[in-house]
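Lecture notes, unit on protein representations.

Consider one protein chain, 639 amino acids long.
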Amino acid sequence: MLQLILGRAGSGKTGELYRRIGAAADRGDRAILLVPEQFSFENERELYLRLGPERSARVEVLGFKRLCNNIFRFYGGLAGRSLDDTGRRILMGVALREMGSGLTVYGPQADKPGFIEDLIGEVRELKSAGVTPEALSAASIADPSLADKVGDIAAIYAAYQALIDQNYLDGEDDILRALELVSPREFFGGVSVFIDSFTAFMEAEYRLLAAILAGADEVTAAFTCDGLLDDEGGLGVFSASKETAARLIRLAEDAAVPVAEPLVMGEPLRFQAEGLRRIERGLFRERPAGEPAGEGVMLVEAGDVYEECAAVAASICADVRERGMRYNQIAVICRDLTPYRIALTRSFERYGIPFFADLPEGAGSTPAVVAAETALDCAAEGFTAGHLLRFAKCAAVGLAPEDTAEFENYCYIWNAGPKDWSAPFRNHPDGLGATLDDRARERLNRANAVREAVLPPLERFRQAVREADGPGFAAAVYDLLMAVDAPEHIRALCTQAGSEEEAARALEREDRAWEALMGLLDTLAAVIGPRRLSLPVLRSLFLSGAAGISLGEIPQTLDQVIVGTADRIRPTGIRSAYVIGASAGVFPAACGAAGLFGEGERRALIAAGIPLSQTAQTQAVREKFYAYFAVTVPSERLW
């Protein structure tokens, strides 16, 4: 049976869902709570608090990825090497190079790093829609220019997928692979499945939901909306949720599964201030009913992000000191954290506010990656003074700043170049006419020490990476880092980071960066394999892979302000919320063409049977919902 629980934000949908989960646990039923992957921890914690250790242990909290993992454990399919984002970049780069001049539309763009990102995003969307390269290639498209474009993308997709199938398991293929294995009654029989925190599903996810409906004893799904009827032409705040609920009903009817009368919750219970109730009822409505009320709501105008973040920090201090709130009862929500990274960090540190921001950082500026990239520049572009100086100044190389300064000064005074590296420096560090005394000899020795420290390992590296295969290239990068004792120098650098706590955090971050770099080298060795590639190609693949390395931050304390974007954050128990960047075109974000296809092309592909989901209308509806979610998070104060 399918049971829908519908209600506006704060109306008690999740509470009702948890009550039913508890009842299933009491009956001894096997229960699954299906939520978006990034919200699984928060839901596990909430289940534990509501149901207790014994009852919550009978419930599995899963996202689609972990659900597929369970299916593979039951039927087989886990054997293989998992592909991460870094590996996807490298594989896509290899696929593009193998296509060569066979592309009709995208040939001139094949070497551009940004194009690799666009292709990965487009293939990800196609996979989430359940579209294979064969299905894309077979789509009947009347427009010749679009047909050429689709033909190129289908060919690249096919080459990319062929490389994946040789050595890897791609998590983006998990749902389609799981559907080929699962028997609905065998796997989901006797299971009560509960679904929460979703607004919409991808086409491949709908197919797995159809299997769940066909096999599970009961399916209960909660959605944020005020009913099933959509009288806003698909453009309302709740239109996406209503369409999703209606689609589930159709799937249940197709599987001959009974559908219970939807349970529609009453008025929201979360809000303790009338102003918050008014905003929840009237947001994005042309004529909100009732009299205006501003209790619990503050509108602030700031000149720039620094002024805005300073005002937020001051108000958070008032929340804690005057209103008795804990930091973990406060959330800061925006649409894009990138412009706020520095301003928020500086303002919160100045006010002594602990916070956690879900904003992964790239590894491109970490010492080990910088040293490897600089060495590749030296090998590919020649041992110029500039390249050698960059390598000598890398923290992973560990040379004293005074020594590199003497080397730089000598190169500048004597215009040193590749012809001067083969023999020790002999001239006076200050130029012609100066007397070479003991102090000058000491400075000259320092400059020579730098030359001798960097040239031999770089020369060995240059020889090793010329026309190297995958394992040879990976070994050359690793050997170079070992030759300059990079791990020890990075460790020493971390110990100088400040306090003991700061040093430990810096060391932990660099350890993760090192592991990520080693993973990148392993991936390059496996993907390139015995192919011997030119140094520019190897360098391009390495740089593309390194750009994809992401280092997430680990929370340092339990009592801290949660900072996140509206599409990723799902905090509970929030008393005060700060919605920043609430400007036209920023939050809600402006909608435009996503990926490689324009809006008209997307509509043509949808008409041809390719169920793409990123249309301007779906983006607009999604952005409305994100804004609605952000302003309905708090129970007491909205800033």
